[in-house]
Write a structure and sequence with these properties.
With about 120 residues, the chain is mainly beta. It is built from no helices and eleven strands. Strands 2, 4, 5, 6, 9, 10 and 11 form a seven-stranded mixed beta sheet that branches. Strands 1-3-8-7 form a four-stranded antiparallel beta sheet, with no helix packed on it.
Length: about 120
Amino acid sequence: VQLQASGGGLVQAGGSLRLSCAASGRAVSNYEMGWFRQAPGKEREFVGSITRRGGSTSYADSVKGRFTISSDNTKNTVYLQMNNLKLEDTAVYYCAARSLVATQYGYWGQGTQVTVSS
């Protein structure tokens, strides 16, 4: 599966953005889909994930209650809705896919920059 993340940009603190992760090659419903981010000088960190067929979601504590992951199987796309953005949310955001038999995310998109300004 090939993944293409988009939707990043510059937003003021307290604002919102929606990131998209469009998949091609295989249906996203075959994978657990995750969002990760990496801020300058920091390790890549888990943001959240959605199980195959959108059964359930999980989130990092730092974004819980502000970010929402959803999927649209008709568009083969997964979304990350980010509300009440904070300065510390500034990072490059990546989407990733993990197949049922894999223990790690094996497919990654190219990343999209999110910058939150004061």
